[in-house]
Amino acid sequence: MSKERGNDNEKDALFVPDIVEQRIQQVDIESEMKKSFLDYSMSVIVSRALPDVRDGLKPVHRRILYTLHENGLTPDKAYRKCADTVGSVLGRYHPHGDASVYDAMVRLAQDFSMRYPLVDGHGNFGSVDGDPPAAYRYTESRMSRMSLSMLTDIDKDTVNFTNNYDDRLKEPVVLPSRFPNLLVNGSTGIAVGMATNIPPHNLGEVIDAVNLLIDNPDAGLDELMQHIKGPDFPTGGVIMGRAGIRAAYATGRARLMLRARAGIEEMNAGRERIVVTEIPYMVNKARLIEHIAELVKNKRIEQISDLRDESDRDGMRIVIELKRDANAQVVLNQLYSYSQMQDTVGVIMLALVDGIPKVMPLKEMLTHYIDFQGEVVTRRVKYDLRKAKEREHVLEGLKLVCDHTDEVISIIRHSKDSNDSKVNLIARFGITDIQASAIVAMQLGRLSGMEQIKIEEELAALIERVAGYEEILADYGKVMQIVKDELSVMREKYADERRTEIVSVSGEVDIEDLIPVEDCVITLTHFGYLKRQLMDSYRTQRRGGRGISGMTRREEDFVEELFVCSTHDYVMFFTSKGRCFRLKGYEVGEGSRTSRGTNIVNLLQIDADEKVTSMIKVSEFDEDQFLVMVTRKGIIKRTPLSQYRNVRKGGLIAIGLDEDDELAWVRLTDGSSELIVATRQGMAIRFDEQDARPLSRTARGVKAITLDEGDEVIGMARVRDGALVLTVSENGLGRRSDIGQYRLQSRGGKGIRNYYVEKNGMVAGVKMVDEDDDIIMITDDGVIIRIPVSEITVQSRYGGGVRVMRVAQDSRVVTLARTPKDEEIADETGESDSEGQEDTVEPEGKTES
């Protein structure tokens, strides 16, 4: 026995190596590592990390939504435990860890991560402070209303299905996605050797761009960006500059600068505080506050006295209290520089196209979605056509019963069974097996007269529907119209206002062609808040109206400068210290009618004790134009405009000033104009501008008018043919006077009496106006009124004028601006005031000074 066993062992020893040698394959380790790693990386890229360009979803997200759909967890149904959904996803379609599924579901439910959440979560799904969600045994979820649109008509053969991991079930390769989810909600993913970071966008803007591209496939990037302004993050914030947005949309890659939204509020005892209401996307609020506290502790920022989080269910509010003598704007700029209150967002618009990763510009991404929706609609129409024809086929068989009722009943009655009945019906009438089955299964009650009429009506409707489907399939333009109509319905139901503001920054030349040429009103307040508003924000009112609120102001703030310009004009700023700065009109942040605007120190490098006192618009820096400047003390200087062509970011010296003087007024002239300089105490002088010889940019100037004690210049106007001199008092009285009543004098005199201030109030301003002009006036309590100049009475310069604006008690008119009349502006808020129109003031006297 032992010998035999030994022989057997010896045979086994000889046999085993032979088998092993047959199974071993000689491979090169380098090529095997390359192949294995490539297979792994492609699996990660295609099956895990990157979204599909068509529905914007990664496989795990797609499986979560499809499972919710299969389980019937629609928005009108009760919530169900997330553990149930996670288990269903794992068991049916996603053979990975439960944490990967639950984490993905949590993100789909977070309103601070998703611009339009696709999962409706109930319970603790985390917070913007970085708090983790509760375990899936505690939380509940269901589909959101938006996610219903991701799966609309999925049961109508609109998309392809594939086998799940164990070939038991079928899962969709892509979801029909009634809206462009890839751009709307964005996507973030890190694969092997590549990553994607597509920011979220506003639904209404993206749908508008898709509709534009359907109507005009040759539309360029500039046209698309008229609709898609830029990313729209769920947490709001402010994007600094448009150049990065344009680069992202043109090339698929860019970097955006995103800032928190912060405002400066006054406190008691002259102190100020910074209030942050929005932070950059994906920034952890709790860590941000901790980091600011560390900056204070390490004395990198020394002017902060207190820091607290006052956020609640009504919104975010981080309060940063400052020390008594702190400059709030300086501290805010330090916070932007040292903390995540200003963050960089990298954009990589990479997605899967036919299973291949590709970085795409905006237009290509939209084009892929349009093509996909065309395919979805085409497949759905084909499905509906097939079902309609099948139903039509059955109804034609049922109609046969109605036409031969007795004979059909007789055949069925004399047949052995249902199969025999079908055979006999087919043999007698030549119908199909489907029609015969429907006839045999037909209830006797449907043989009544009314039921027969219903069958005929349904058949007629089906024939018409089939013709409609065939017409759609024969014309791809009709398919695209259906896509547009369905997108428009989505826009109407779910579109909301943009949350992220986009502001221009100096030096971005490449964006100018994207900015539409629009008329706008630019205002600057006493405390230095600058904003731009479209002309549509103002409505013409009748003379004597109360006006509308033009801004939300801090206490004692009022508008000092206002004029109408184009978004492409240069806006030149002149400061009390005689310095000049320059911006483009579109670089001034656009604000709503009630918004405060942007503090001027964010746009211009002015000193703490320096103030912008005048703004003018310039279209081109021509050689034959001049800037005429007048100071508070009545000094005038005329300088060629060309000397201000190259304004540095830090500003240029515009005029040399005496120690107790400041620049008060600036006008653009052609070198041969006549000027009127008016004072607050009612004096005015008219002289030829050539009386003031051209001086260098840094010169002091010469005397324009000799002022009485306590008087100051309140305005300067350029004389125009046919124009009248409009004078408005601080009390809201105004009149127009013929320019001939102001004799031409030599520069430097005291001038003549323009207005009797003792009775009618100090002068607020003067303008040269035409009959077809409108005038915009603003009081120091922020009320704006716009009225036609034609409603203001023409009087001599001795007249006190008529009531042009009802000024509240303790208020006064501080600014007026001339603008062309807009016949289309509706009279919405003001009404004709007969009492105000008859409110004239008698002249006090006719003695000329």
How would you briefly describe this protein structure?
With about 850 residues, the protein is of the alpha+beta class. The strands form twelve sheets. It has a five-stranded antiparallel beta sheet, with no helix packed on it. It has a four-stranded mixed beta sheet with strand order 14-9-8-17. A four-stranded antiparallel beta sheet has the order 10-11-13-12, covered by helices on one side. The longest helix is centred in the middle third of the chain and has 42 residues, at about 360-405.
Q: What does this 3D model show about the protein?
A:
There is one protein chain. Helix 8 (203-215) crosses helix 13 (362-403), helix 13 (362-403) packs across helix 14 and helix 14 (405-413) packs across helix 15. This protein has a five-stranded antiparallel β-sheet with strand order 37-34-35-40-42, with no helix packed on it. Strands 14-9-8-17 form a four-stranded mixed β-sheet. A four-stranded antiparallel β-sheet has the order 10-11-13-12, with helices on one face. Helix content is 31%, strand content 24%. The chain is an alpha+beta fold and 849 residues long.
